[in-house]
Design goal:
Elements lengths: L3 E4 L7 H9 L3 E4 L3 E5 L15 E4 L2 H15 L9 E4 L2 H10 L7 E2 L10 H8 L8 E7 L5 H8 L3 E12 L4 H10 L6 E5 L2 H13 L3 H4 L3 E4 L2 H13 L7 E4 L4 H12 L2
Parallel strand pairs: 1-2, 1-9, 4-5, 4-7, 5-6, 7-8, 9-10, 10-11
Antiparallel strand pairs: 3-8
Protein name: Uroporphyrinogen-III synthase
Family: Belongs to the uroporphyrinogen-III synthase family.
GO molecular function: uroporphyrinogen-III synthase activity
Amino acid sequence: MNVNVVLTRPDGRNDQLAARALAAGWQPLALPALAIRPLVQPGQCMPKPGDYDLVVFVSRNAARLYLDLLVGQSSGQAWPERTLAATVGRSSAQPLYDSSFIQDAQIVHPDSTARNQDSEALWQCLEPRLPAIRKVLIVRGESGREWLGEQCERMGIDVDRLALYRREPTLWNSSQAAALSQAMAVPESCVFLLTSSESVDAIHANISRLGLSRAWGRSRFVAIHERIASRLQSVLGATGNVEPPMVKVCSPSDDSIFLAISQMASR
């Protein structure tokens, strides 16, 4: 059976997985579910890391956008030695490691082998350091979970929040729709990558518009968190799909995603 791998991360985040899928003999189809729209333009003032004990980046996009803006304003100054930089997982920390702007020892995130890479796992990593943390900056999208900030505030820590981007649902064009319709002629051959609850909703909106809802329920899925898999279950259930979807949950690293796709493709 020909395997079609539908990659739904934003533009620029699907290329490596697409190349690996093609090398494995699968047919990759890049259909970004969400578009990233920056909310802060170069030159605008923004909070500086030296004013905080900890800067938390909730996603790879948050880290990338903040560092791009900071490098443009810092005149070559290094990241302050007293300020920690934290992310919810190894994948979202990659822009920090790649930047050479922050020392590795200042970067905190759950280990890549952790079952979940999320706010709860990050909180466990931060707990031993909390006595030294008095002020936190959370760099995020326009919307998202408030759990980590609320936990900090319950501990008496001052929390500032900086929204750097908006995630907007994409509308797949006619050529993308035609490619997807062709791939879903055999729904069981399609493996969809799901990387956020918002992307599940955005994908479902496109699927419904194209009249592919019934076939979508028979496809296979790889989700990078249990919450995303639960959102998929809810969306499919609301459209009348009574059978539970075939979902594999994995960590957000490309290696883990590729392995999960391989497992779903071989079923």
